[in-house]
Design brief:
CATH topology of the largest domain: Rossmann fold
Low-confidence stretches: 1-8
CATH superfamily of the largest domain: NAD(P)-binding Rossmann-like Domain
Distance between the termini: 38 Å
Mean pLDDT: 94
CATH architecture of the largest domain: 3-Layer(aba) Sandwich
Order of helices and strands: HEHEHEHEHEHEEHEHHHHHH
């Protein structure tokens, strides 16, 4: 993860807008705040007045309810230097068209939605509006996120760098070509769910082997969290960490041999391929 102080110093003066503050956009916003960005420089839109009050109380941001104010999104972006679009994919292009006239010409528009291409966003905004397509994940909220970003055709290096640094305050960021975004989705965008599923399976197996449910869940959760933290250390290598806890012909080796015999690597490849194919289907459906 990048040094938070560096990220904060280079982006501290930016005004940010979050349009639609659900789980993903909310995770990004909370991660950026946790890295040191002043909440007073953030405006977020939510649907209902009660959610606006709750969000403002929790985070200190300026929260506006779209049910109260039909111009809430326009108000939110008027002074924004970076705008994060967090509505459902089917609504992204309509939102781009809604805010196009209110954006500052140099404001970067960042999509966190699967399936919406850079070209589609650029066509829905004014000519020359900087655009970034991103694929973040929810561990941003705990400072251990992973994000892939792809630049639009009109964004300059300095503006892209600002977007990257905002994300770096709460995770690892990789700039990739747009045709690699689906692979990012498969590895890290959807990846936390794979790990949570593994934790569920470990706990369920523990129960079947005689542990009570609470103990099994706590042990599985702590194991997954601890292993992840070890992987986050500088220079960590998953294969070496695995070897470090695997004695020849020991208990761990027996479990890993069972995984290999069951075709774990092939299962993961098949799952991530399914993720990529679904992402491409969404792109085709949303572009038609």
């Amino acid at each position: 993860m990048a040094d938070n102080t560096t990220a904060q110093n280079s982006t501290a003066d930016l005004n940010l807008a979050f349009l639609g503050t659900g789980s993903m956009n909310g995770a990004i916003m909370r991660g950026i705040i946790a890295s040191g960005h002043a909440p007073e420089r953030i405006t977020a839109t939510v649907r209902t007045p009660s959610k606006a009050v709750a969000l403002a109380d929790e985070t200190g941001v300026n929260a506006i309810a779209t049910e109260d104010d039909e111009n809430a999104n326009l108000t939110a972006v008027a002074e924004a230097d970076v705008v994060f679009l967090g509505v459902k994919p089917v609504g992204i292009l309509d939102l781009c068209r809604e805010i196009a006239g209110a954006l500052k010409p140099a404001a970067a528009v960042v999509s966190v939605a699967a399936g919406i291409t850079v070209a589609a966003m650029e066509a829905a905004l004014r000519d020359g509006q900087p655009v970034v397509r991103s694929m973040p994940n929810t561990p941003l909220t705990v400072g251990l996120g992973a994000v892939g970003v792809a630049a639009g055709t009109s964004i300059d290096e300095s503006t892209l760098d600002s977007v990257v640094k905002l994300y770096e305050g709460a995770g690892v960021v990789k700039v990739v070509a747009e045709d690699q975004i689906e692979a990012v989705t498969a590895v890290s965008g959807s990846g936390p769910a794979y790990i949570f599923y593994m934790a569920e399976a470990m706990a369920a197996a523990g129960e079947k082997l005689g542990l009570d449910a609470g103990t099994a869940r706590e042990l599985a959760a702590a194991t997954v969290a601890g292993a992840g933290r070890m992987l986050a250390e500088p220079g960590a290598d998953a294969a070496q960490l695995r070897r470090n806890v695997t004695s020849p012909k020991g208990t761990t080796a027996a479990a890993l041999d069972s995984f290999a015999a069951s075709g774990l690597e092939e299962m993961v490849l098949k799952a991530e391929t399914a993720c990529v194919e679904r992402s491409r289907e969404l792109t085709r459906d949303l572009s038609s």
